[in-house]
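FAQ: What does the model actually see?

It sees only this:
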Amino acid sequence: NKDDPQAAEKFKEINEAAAVLTDEKKRAEYDRFGHAGSDFSGSGAGFDPRDFGFGGFGFDFDDIFDSFFGGGFGSSSRPRRRERGSDLQAEVEVTLNEVATGTSKTMRVSKLERCDACDGTGSDDGDVSACPSCHGRGVVRRAQRTPFGMFSTSTVCPQCRGHGEIIKNPCRKCHGSGRVEKTKKITVDIPPGVESGTRLRIPGEGEAGERNAPPGDLYVYVRVKPHPVFTRQGNDILLEVSIPFTLAALGGEIEVPTLEGHAKLKIPPGTQPGTVFRMRGKGLPSMHGFGTGSEKIRVNIEVPSKLSRKQKQLLEEFDKESKSKPFFSRIKDVFD
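And it is asked to produce this:
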């Protein structure tokens, strides 16, 4: 409106600002000296060229800054990226036998899911329009002149709370958020060889984002239950067994448990307390596919606390044997 003195003054200021932005020399003077150096009219201290983006001149001053500064002066004119939903955490417990083979676990997770009533839009009737304050960007920007030049700051738009959209009639079920609380069954594949503390990522199974924004992820932490017989040592498993001292001296065969059932283990004559035998391939698979561990069997020598008369006589005979003979050789002589 040419008859409006305020509009004319604003238009004059915009033309002067554009002249500075398009002239490298004037821009350098303004960056160095501020208002006086560039001969801006009016008070330079309160001047904010972006304040004129909504003055009814038919364009957005943000676009001028973007075109001159290539987007480096702030965010571009593209809509602000919608914030994804929150990530969630859960814990699952598995047995050592399940670690050996791998398994699947189904869990129930309570989380925010997309609202079915509005298809996640947050609108009761689908009437969604671009925010007039930020023009759909979700952020508002202001330029500031400093001794080091002009800088732009961006903040979340207070009118649309960063969505870039205005909903006139919010959904009555989700109250405009586009998501509601639900409980969902989720199946998690547990790979063979998994260890306690392993974190498994389930993409897209976190909480839904507001108004159809991308969902977060679900992170499942694995806990391996202690086994009543075996102790895990990496990909190996350790079994402690006790054998009679006669078996240790004479040798023989015992049956030991494995993760697959049972297996025979040969005990050679003269086996010493604490000897560890190894059954290869009877341990746990590597989670990364690098083979399978072993089952280690550590033997402890059992000494009887009570003896029959016959046993006592035999041991007394053994005790009379030559002291020069090794312990297990003397036992073998007595029982042979």
